[in-house]
Amino acid sequence: MGHVLLRVTKVGCMESRQSNPQAVVRGEALFSYSLVAAFVVLGVIGIIHHAIWRDEVTCTR
Predict the structure, then answer these.
(1) For the chain, where are the E strands, in sequence order?
(2) Which of 11, 16, 26, 29 is the most exposed place for a label (fewest CB within 10 A)?
(3) Which residues make Cβ contacts (< 8 Å) with residue 19, sequence separation at least 6?
(4) Which pLDDT band holds residue 3 (cuts at 50, 70, 90)?
(5) pLDDT, position 59
(6) What is the pTM of this model?
(7) In terms of residue numbers, what domain contains 39?
(8) What number of other Cβ atoms are within 10 A of residue 24's Cβ?
(9) Distance between CA 53 and CA 61 in Å, rounded?
(10) Which of 16, 31, 32 is nearest to 2 (CA)?
(11) Per-residue pLDDT tens over the stretch 20-43
């Protein structure tokens, strides 16, 4: 899938040029890894600040 960037060169005229596919893939990977990192960080914060409920304290056999 090719990505095309459009830029205005003159009033009312648009010129298209192909973007660098490797840069697009790197950007998508960076975005994906950022989402995963944010999920992990927020999950760890939630685990650290989790209040233990009565049913979690008791040991059932």
Answers:
(1) 4-10, 13-18
(2) 11
(3) 3, 4, 5
(4) low
(5) 75
(6) 0.54
(7) 4-57
(8) 14
(9) 18
(10) 16
(11) 778 778 888 999 999 999 999 999
